[in-house]
Design a protein that fits this description.
One of its GO terms (molecular function) is ATP binding. This protein is α/β, with parallel strands linked by helices. It is built from nine helices and twelve strands. It folds into two domains: 1-87 and 170-185 and 197-266, 3-Layer(aba) Sandwich (Rossmann fold); 95-166, no CATH class. It has helices spanning 51-58, 81-85, 103-108, 123-135, 151-164, 181-198, 209-215, 233-236, 239-246; strands at residues 13-22, 25-35, 40-44, 66-71, 74-75, 88-91, 169-173, 201-205, 218-223, 226-231, 250-254, 261-265.
Length: 266
């Protein structure tokens, strides 16, 4: 277990002592975070602790008041928007699409950073779109409108759009929101499968500690805008962390099926 942050490694996405403030409230203070390459990282913590803000700051969607975010060893704010979008994709909470949009039309939007006035939708764009649809198992729904899909299928479609962007870094803000447990398991299994098969680095905000411990290689626990714990799930998910970060007395056991830490509230 590592308390607070570390910086100075060779990972592609790093934050160094970043601070973010909204009117009358500091959300993140001097936070340092290194996202491990080729791994799935889960960011957890109580409501309003800054989880989504951290993810948005990493993607340059929310400006930092102090510190810096580095992408590929350079300050992200010095990179052009198209250059960032070719390296990093983010799926925000509860994304919206125009009524009647089909799965294929949505996924094609992921190719926008690769296009220009001189380079419209190409054969490579078509291949990347189809590859993303196949990876997410949506071939039979690709011509269906999004509103006709189940919650799990719809989330897979949004992830397919992010995959079509063809970046090595994928940030997901609460991808299991509004999904029932079977669809949550389905979606997180897909994310781990994509990480395993394509080597993509994934960082995602999750609410469910047990699901985070099961599907992530690396966990980061936030409290009041600061990193309190980070490391492998079996190092982070302890009764001490749950009491400190969530004020929840509990017992932590090894999941009898998967062996990951599992929280049982007292």
């Amino acid at each position: 277990m590592v308390q607070n942050g570390q910086f100075g490694g060779t990972n592609r996405l790093q934050a160094k002592e970043i601070s973010v403030s909204y009117p009358r409230r500091a959300v993140i203070e001097a936070l340092t975070l290194d996202i491990p390459d080729g791994k799935v990282t889960a960011i957890v913590g109580p409501n309003a602790c800054g989880k989504s803000t951290v993810l948005r700051a990493l993607a340059r969607l929310t400006p930092v008041a102090a510190g810096r975010v580095d992408l590929d060893g350079q300050p992200i704010e010095k990179k052009g928007s198209r250059a960032v979008a070719r390296r990093l994709a983010i799926l925000p909470q509860s994304p919206l699409a125009p009524e009647g949009m089909t799965v294929r039309d949505l996924v094609r939007r992921g190719r926008t950073p690769h296009q220009s006035a001189l380079r419209q939708f190409s054969h490579e764009d078509a291949r990347a779109t189809q590859r993303a649809i196949q990876l997410t198992g949506l071939e039979s729904q690709e011509n269906s409108s999004l509103e006709t899909l189940s919650g799990g299928q719809r989330q897979r479609a949004w992830i397919a759009m992010a995959l079509a962007q063809d970046t090595d870094l994928l940030l997901l803000d609460e991808p299991t929101t509004y999904l029932d447990l079977p669809h949550q398991i389905e979606l997180l299994t897909l994310i781990r499968k994509l990480n395993h098969e394509t080597g993509r680095t994934v960082a995602m905000v999750l609410h469910d500690i047990n699901l985070a411990a099961r599907f992530a290689h690396h966990m980061v626990a936030l409290k009041k805008g600061r990193i309190r714990y980070q490391g492998a799930p079996d190092q982070v998910v302890t009764p001490e962390m749950m009491q400190d970060v969530f004020a929840l007395p509990c017992t932590v056991i090894a999941d009898p099926v998967h062996g990951h830490p599992h929280v049982i509230p007292s």
